[in-house]
Amino acid sequence: MNNGFFIVVSPTGKILFTSDFRQSGGYVVEVPLHHHSRGSFFSRYPLLFHTILLFMWIIVLWKSVMERDAKFKAKIGDIIRD
Asked: Which tops the pLDDT comparison, 72 or 67?
């Protein structure tokens, strides 16, 4: 859905598509790729991309567990001292 002005410009600067402001709608626009284009990082290395995302998720999960564990140990230490 489009909630504002939308424009598609080719790498050469040619305007391929424009929409009106505040006109809702869905648009499909064919955008030509340069013949020397090798695609995106994701399309060239999908397994590496997913591995990086998984690794980042594991780090965030590990940090969350460690932080929760530290807070739990601090709370238990407070209870024991009282």
From this structure: 67
